[in-house]
Specification:
With 660 residues, the chain is of the alpha+beta class. It contains 13 helices and 22 strands.
Length: 660
């Protein structure tokens, strides 16, 4: 990528134009619906057609906003025709109403935002009848009791735009949206995407591409009519968040592979560009563009765009395992938010300054992010960023849930993806996980079934260590989704307390298992999984010997796992079409040699890096009363203490719920 800054912008413009032109053959005659090929979402084909229009119109809005009136492909005219047809209730291409389709509320925000950004080019040139029809289509959003998550901002953006052009809006709606957003702010720049069980537990990419983006655009749309001080409050929060987000992008350009809606891919750039646009970023302009360039190329170089120049459903390749029931053929075009930088003029510093190194390229780092409950480690030699997760799992603590692999695993990275077998869009049980495996700590029952973790409770996070606890359980229906999965009978097991210390490429993972009230002695086997890698079945073999397992990935990464204390049996578990990174995958695991002993420490050393670790930390164990302590000494002399307190045996939050 040896381009000048000006050539960089030209590349982004060409990419945007190619994406916009590629969808035109799939549009209806008057452009109101874009029916892309593929399996319809759970919302239906009519909704998907609106999604195709709205999400690409958002890309068109950013493309036109910073182009100085240059529009060689008549993007403005093409989408104006679609607006006229889609809002005409008598037109066969009409858009679904909000009453007919909830998803239409989501897409309304993209349309409103794009109309604001292109107001002189599109809105001001529409005839009065079309403008009124657009406002009539928006109007039922007023007073709608939107779901308690980022959806409130679809209402906020739509009503804000309507307010500026003579449409309907309601002050009570806007006041509620602002108040809820403040309630969901977890501190240090992090929002929970709504509350689950009354707590901040929902941390993922929606923090950036929704919870930071929309509030600032709300202020941009309203201008002087925005409440006093609101813009500064939102700017300060984004500024703080970007200090963390810059850590969560690998040298390969990949964002963290964690959370739902991963098929939106480089929408993860939305908050970075927004920081530049609103002067709300700690990043130098050259770092912002370097991150953006790297991420765009990461996905375009790994199969995100097919031969027809359409965005595919998946991550590096078409892959349905990371989808949700709401995912449809046009869903990936939420990635349009990754092109916000085009709304900045060509002479903005992000488009004129030279690129800067990424944080992970400047040197190794270890950080703790208290709000989401994450430990973070980046290593310059391989460019990998790892997150150890003892925070939110997107699950209500009031009942057990099946584990969603994108929320419930103990670790995520910029270079690996969790194992996600099945197709969550294919109906009940199609997304059932055969059992948590990679980066999971599970108990195996007599039938070999793995226990689930969600919901987990954070116990502590301090320095380079964190501890959480969960009640092992075996759901009868293990179908997973971000919102908890089915309310199904389950079998309860012991308490599992897990602590981590993370430095460099290695996590020391310590585990204790304690009986719950009324537990009978069992023959549960404790199993710990390491990092899954895409592998070449004909390439370098995966090796397991004694207490050590090692996997060599197709990208040169090494995943290894050592049972350092009480985990003498290692093996490698193979996967077929179960990982977004490749058709074949492998995961190292270690386990106890027989039933796990209650109240004892088990230690695993979990490594992910560009080579085998040069050395392993030394770990000793001891008891301090009922607390078990893992004393970790690293090769450079640094020391961490992982303290695992005993579970309260009589505590049973689910005693009145249905059990199998």
């Amino acid at each position: 990528m040896n381009r000048t800054p000006a050539e960089d912008r030209a590349h982004w413009e060409r990419t945007a134009d190619q994406l916009l032109l590629a969808v035109r053959p799939y549009a209806t005659g008057e452009h109101a619906l874009i029916d892309l090929p593929g399996v319809p979402s759970a919302n239906g084909a009519h909704s998907d057609g609106l999604e195709g229009f709205a999400r690409t119109f958002l890309l068109a809005g950013f493309r036109l906003a910073g182009a100085g009136g240059n529009d060689p492909h008549d993007i403005a005219g093409w989408y104006a025709q679609g607006l006229a047809a889609g809002t005409d209730p008598k037109n066969p291409e009409r858009w679904p109403t909000f009453a007919e389709c909830n998803q239409a509320k989501v897409e309304a925000a993209s349309i409103a935002l794009a109309l604001h950004e292109t107001r002189p080019l599109i809105w001001d040139r529409l005839d009065d009848q079309v403008r009124q029809r657009v406002l009539d289509w928006f109007a039922p959003m007023v007073g709608d009791p939107m779901p308690g998550n980022n959806w409130i901002w679809f209402q906020g953006i739509t009503e804000a735009f309507a307010r500026t052009v003579g449409g309907q809006w309601r002050q009570q709606d806007l006041d509620r949206i602002i108040a809820l957003t403040d309630d969901w702010y977890a501190g240090d720049g992090w929002y929970s995407d709504g509350l689950t069980g009354g707590a901040h537990r929902n941390f993922d990419h929606y923090n950036g591409w929704a919870m930071h983006l929309y509030p600032l655009w709300f202020c941009r749309i309203l201008g002087h009519a925005a409440p006093g001080g609101l813009l500064d409050r939102y700017r300060a929060r984004l500024h703080r968040f970007l200090a963390d987000q810059r850590l969560l992008i690998g040298a390969n350009g990949s964002p963290l592979v964690q959370g739902r809606s991963l098929t939106y891919r480089h929408a993860a750039l939305a908050s970075l560009w927004t920081g530049a646009l609103f002067d709300a970023t700690p990043l130098a302009p050259g770092e912002t563009r370097a991150l953006a360039n790297r991420m765009l190329h990461h996905f375009t170089d790994h199969g995100a765009i097919d031969e027809q120049r359409l965005l595919t459903l998946g991550w590096h390749r078409p892959y349905r395992g990371i989808l949700q029931a709401y995912s449809g053929p046009a869903s990936p075009y939420w990635a349009s938010k990754g092109f916000i930088g085009l709304a900045l003029p060509p002479d903005h510093p992000v488009w004129t300054k030279g690129e800067a190194q990424l944080t992970v390229e400047q040197g190794d780092f270890t950080r703790v992010l208290p709000a989401p409950g994450w430990l973070v480690s980046g290593t310059a030699a391989d460019g990998v960023v790892r997150v150890v997760n003892h925070g939110g799992d997107h699950a209500d603590p009031a009942r057990p849930h099946a584990d969603d692999p994108c929320y419930a695993r103990f670790a995520y990275s910029t270079h690996t993806a969790p194992e996600t077998p099945g197709d969550p869009t294919a109906g009940p049980s199609a997304g059932a996980d055969p059992g948590p495996l990679d980066n999971a700590v599970v108990l195996l029952d007599a039938a070999g079934r793995a226990s689930h973790r969600r919901p987990a409770t954070r116990i502590s996070i301090d320095g380079a260590t964190a501890v959480s606890r969960s009640r092992a359980h075996w759901p009868q229906d293990a179908t997973w989704d971000p919102f908890g999965g089915p309310d199904t009978p389950y079998v309860l097991g012991p308490w599992v307390t897990v602590g981590s210390a993370l430095r460099g490429s290695i996590e020391v993972r310590a585990v204790r298992v304690d009986p719950a009230a009324g537990d009978e002695p069992t023959d549960h086997v404790l199993r710990i999984g390491g990092w899954p890698l895409a592998v070449d079945p004909q390439g370098q073999p995966c090796v397991a010997q004694g207490a050590t397992a090692r996997v060599a990935g197709v990208d040169g990464l090494i995943s290894s796992l050592v049972g350092a204390h009480g985990l003498p049996a290692a093996s490698v578990v193979s996967g077929a079409d179960s990982n977004a990174m490749g058709a074949a995958s492998a995961t190292p695991v270690v386990r106890t040699d027989g039933p796990v002993a209650y109240g004892t420490l088990h230690i695993a050393l979990v490594h992910l890096g560009g080579s085998d670790p040069a050395s392993l930390p030394r770990v000793t164990t001891r008891a301090e009363g009922t607390t078990l302590v893992a004393d970790v000494t690293w090769a450079d002399g640094a020391r961490d203490l992982i303290r695992l307190p005993a579970a309260e045996k009589e505590f049973d939050p689910w005693k009145d719920q249905h059990r199998a």
